[in-house]
Here is the input.
Amino acid sequence: MRAGRHVLVSEWIVIVTFLVMVLVTFAQVIFRYVFEFSLPWADELARYCLVWMVFVGMVVALVRGQHVTVDLLRARYQGRVRLLMLSVIDLACAVLFGTLLYGGVLLMQLAVGQTTSGLGMPKYLVYAALPLGAVLMLVELALRVYRRHTSPGLE
Here is the structure.
């Protein structure tokens, strides 16, 4: 099965934020211990890259099946009961991510007009990772339910 565009974009965001985080942290170590000069914005940028990597990377982990799961019920049921159970689980996840989307938008609205201390960038850009990650998860969950009900043999 081919990954959707939203997953490919997520993968690239994760790759870029990880590279930036590693390079900035490495530069900070070199500057601090070799040149005895600390970059005041480096730890903040690395932290914000980690936030984006986590929230956007959720959908990548979901698609690859790398989230922690409890397969006790899943292995126990077959056929229509299993299909129904998996749909109920996806619905519960959708409620969770809908709540995260709502809370993330509220958090972004609260942060309008605020800037970060080290980088001076708008804080709502940092907080935008939460609603974006929630939207990506909702899209993937909807596609998952659709595929499960339209393609026989898929789980």
The chain is about 75% helix and 0% strand. The helical segments are 5-33, 42-64, 72-76, 79-111, 123-127, 129-150. The mean pLDDT is 88.
